[in-house]
Amino acid sequence: MFSINSQSPAFILEYLLEMKIKEAIILAGGLGTRLQSAVPNLPKCMAPVAGKPFLSYVIDYYAAQGIEKFIFSLGYKHEIVEDYLNDEYTILDMEYVIEEKPLGTGGAIQFACRNARDKNILVVNGDTIFKIDLETLSALHIEKEAACTLCLKPLTKFDRYGVVELKEDRSIKSFEEKKFYEEGTINGGVYALNVKKLLDKKLPVVFSFEKDYLEAYCKKEPFYGCIQDNYFIDIGIPQDFEKAQAELAF
Asked: Which of 127, 194, 198, 221 has the greatest number of beta carbons closer than 10 A?
């Protein structure tokens, strides 16, 4: 039986360092069609919320959780995002990958993963904040040697999202379609991802991460779910964009 106490100090240090994900991809290339009426001519992640771009809340939260390096996946009007980050985050360890054409969520993640330096990374959306506990997510993902571990948010009375069902060991059982649910756990759009296991699939250049990776491979790959009932907001529609103005004004 494996015992960490029987290992050398160097092994224990390396093991403990690997138990915390320290690198993140932020998907920030979206046009935000549904938000254009409220925020025209800006990438969705740059929508102003309580006096500053929404993206800044995402960066600040995950930096506070221990993320040390950020890879920004950019597309639509990427110069606006780059100029802002270069001005406001001068000491942040960051780099950009630019989509020449829309690659879909999966293509964007796959493209950014080629610049990752760590074995396991965090993937988040630049238009959503889910205040997950990164230490808990990292521990489950690494303990299970998962290909991908999804952060799941419990909700009640909703129809905007599909539901993710888990088995007893917290592996993914199924992805259910969007419809009205009295209660359920939704995909919060925050993932712990094993880089090599994704890149080894040799998926198309353009694909949906949710449909063509998670749903297509959930019976074949070690995918897990980590339920966290923490603060969650997605500014993808005008109503929630307005809601964020009040909730994030602190």
From this structure: 127
